[in-house]
Give the backbone structure.
Amino acid sequence: MNRRLVLSSLTALILAACGKREGESRADADANLAKAKAFMAENAKAEGVKSFPDGLQYKVVRQGPGEGPNPRPQDLVKVHYEGKLTDGFVFDSSYDRGAPAVFTLRGLVPAWIEALQQMKAGDEWTLWVPPELGYGAEAKGPIPANSVMIFRIELIGVAPQGG
């Protein structure tokens, strides 16, 4: 894997995510929060959806062989993923880029850190991320403030790191 390509792709994604959405007001953010709460309450009732105590919802799509370590915050993980909003808009996808991403859990949104630490290589989960475990009241590029984010995450591998 070309480490420089992966790092430059991640840097570009981070920089793209730093901008505010034009025309977004506090009222928009408040309305989005109300919609997010209603969506999460309804989604919690869906078949197969489980919830962590902090409100993160997930569904196990595929269970891997159950071997190997669970990732820790300092470990490198290799994942394929797709992130979208509740309206279906895909804002990021390693599948579309044609290559899985490799990174440590540190620095990711809290929902990813929490979920990945429960997964094993070979697992595929769908996550429904409430705003407070994602970007919260901050708009990030194409992601409006207080948005529910939906992720399909496939944990391909874990490379334990020291400390």
Q: What stands out?
A: The mean pLDDT is 88. The CA atoms of residues 71 and 117 lie 5 Å apart. The chain has one domain: 3-159. Strands lie at 50-51, 57-62, 76-85, 90-93, 101-104, 124-129, 149-159.
